[in-house]
């Protein structure tokens, strides 16, 4: 379940600088020196499924359904929203603080981009957008760039990358399930 952060925690996170310089680079060419991810996959069809997919993204349900435990400053994503995404179990869980740096709110495109804050296991940016093509197919698009920011993600190497790819597949499944939970166009 999505939890709200205490106001003092939200304020503290908002006061921190992002951990990378290339803010907004997921909207163009991802920078060199990072691991890059690009995913574009159909998840539904028609405006109702676009809305359902967008709600899943913008209300942190994608993260929750993917197995993360989001604690957020705002239940609905907006520019400047901060979140701590917790992954793992018990004392071995990792916390990943992020701040939303961009929100997309267009008639046929909805989504957001967040960047990493100090304490995140990685350094970089991730963008999540759902978009309805002219033929009414709804696509989920993910663009990310990252590099290890903590000693344990450096040591984990390929295992950490594999975990990112698993998370991406879970994000896709969550958005697809949300989109297809409502009837699409016939």
Walkthrough of the structure:
- The protein is of the alpha+beta class and 186 residues long.
- It has a single domain (3-12, 34-179), classed as Alpha-D-Glucose-1,6-Bisphosphate, Chain A, domain 4 (2-Layer Sandwich), CATH 3.30.530.20.
- The protein has five helices and eight strands.
- It has helices at 7-15, 47-58, 61-65, 151-156, 158-179; strands at residues 3-4, 35-45, 69-72, 82-87, 94-106, 109-116, 122-132, 137-148.
- It has an eight-stranded mixed β-sheet with strand order 1-3-4-5-6-7-8-2.
- Strand 5 and strand 6 form a beta hairpin.
- Helix 2 packs across helix 5 (158-179).
- The longest helix is centred in the last third of the chain and has 22 residues, at 158-179.
- The radius of gyration is 16 Å and the shape is globular.
- The model has no long low-confidence stretch (mean pLDDT 95).
Write a concise synopsis of the structure shown:
This protein is of the alpha+beta class and 186 residues long. The chain has a single domain (3-12, 34-179), classed as START domain (Alpha-D-Glucose-1,6-Bisphosphate, Chain A, domain 4, 2-Layer Sandwich).
């Amino acid at each position: 379940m999505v939890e709200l952060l205490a106001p003092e925690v939200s304020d503290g996170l908002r006061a921190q600088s992002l951990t990378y310089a290339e803010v907004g680079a997921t909207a163009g060419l991802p920078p060199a020196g990072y691991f890059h991810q690009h995913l574009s996959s159909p998840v539904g069809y028609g405006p109702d499924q676009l809305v359902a997919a967008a709600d899943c993204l913008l209300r942190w349900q994608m993260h929750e359904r993917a197995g993360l435990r989001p604690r957020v400053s705002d239940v609905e994503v907006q520019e400047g929203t901060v979140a701590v995404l917790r992954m793992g179990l018990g004392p071995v869980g990792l916390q990943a603080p992020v701040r939303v740096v961009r929100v997309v709110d267009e008639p046929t495109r909805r989504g957001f981009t967040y960047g990493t804050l100090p304490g995140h296991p990685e350094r970089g940016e991730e963008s999540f957008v759902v978009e309805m093509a002219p033929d009414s197919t709804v696509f989920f698009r993910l663009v990310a760039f990252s590099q290890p920011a903590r000693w344990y993600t450096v040591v984990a190497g390929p295992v950490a990358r594999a975990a990112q790819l698993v998370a991406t597949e879970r994000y896709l499944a969550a958005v697809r399930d949300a989109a297809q939970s409502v009837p699409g166009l016939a």
